[in-house]
């Protein structure tokens, strides 16, 4: 079964097999990792290992803190302005889809003066702003953008230049899909349920000089400084998600690290786009330079065949290809755990379906 879900998404089979083998007897304890205390020696070591391997795999500099937090990326939509602004402070945003729009809306609810420097709504979120087409105000508390929009399948082909303004990025659907220069960012955050593990965990990487700025009334659970001081364990963290994150990071390292992962992901996406572009039966709506490696939407020339396409795909072991309800059509999410064989199987099915239905 090849699972093309946008999230929660397919996880690496070796990781699932290891987790299954350890589920009832973790580290010889006679207990599941689901059952042990988060303050016990074994789990403290497990969380420390997950942070260490994340720093190694992603190249996180020493002047950044790594936080494992509950609430997913949506929780960070609130935490970011609460940690980086006072009510009435200005912040800058690039709006390229539904997730960046949600971050903008929440910042406004937190009393931030929103300055949207680029808004791609006119293209139905099928484009990204051209590099150099916007200027970041020097008084902005931060510049926020979403490198990859899960729903629309839009991806920035560059890192925005924010100057001295902290750059904040929602990496949820592209986290650790390729090498990343962490030093370009003030804050990197994202939900784990696409490339990093199961739902329920947000991984936040924050530059140390941005700590200590939280509003006095921010709840402690959302205060990055408090959580950093407590090693993300002010309260009971999402322990199973942290455990699986560590396994996945070791899997990434063992399969060649982010350089090799990036090359595999680039090749998978290129093959699928090539198949779509070579056909008059399928189409991708995103401008070529802004196409995502992770989430590839496509439509059929005759949308009345959508249901038949999905039914046949499911019968062929290709699941969760239905596009987001706001967009329609199809969407193939091909995250790190999707093997090249899964993309090949999808391309072969698409070709067979076109031959019999075109």
TrEMBL record:
Its EC number is 2.6.1.52. PANTHER family: PHOSPHOSERINE AMINOTRANSFERASE. HAMAP family: SerC_aminotrans_5 (MF_00160). One of its GO terms (biological process) is pyridoxine biosynthetic process. This is Phosphoserine aminotransferase. Keywords: Amino-acid biosynthesis, Aminotransferase, Cytoplasm, Pyridoxal phosphate, Pyridoxine biosynthesis, Serine biosynthesis, Transferase. Residues 1-346 form the Aminotransferase class V domain. It comes from Actinomyces massiliensis F0489. GO terms for molecular function: O-phospho-L-serine:2-oxoglutarate aminotransferase activity; pyridoxal phosphate binding. The modification N6-(pyridoxal phosphate)lysine is found at residue 194. Homodimer. Catalyzes the reversible conversion of 3-phosphohydroxypyruvate to phosphoserine and of 3-hydroxy-2-oxo-4-phosphonooxybutanoate to phosphohydroxythreonine. Signal peptide: none annotated. It catalyses: O-phospho-L-serine + 2-oxoglutarate = 3-phosphooxypyruvate + L-glutamate; 4-(phosphooxy)-L-threonine + 2-oxoglutarate = (R)-3-hydroxy-2-oxo-4-phosphooxybutanoate + L-glutamate. It is an enzyme of class 2 (transferase). It holds the Pfam family Aminotran_5.
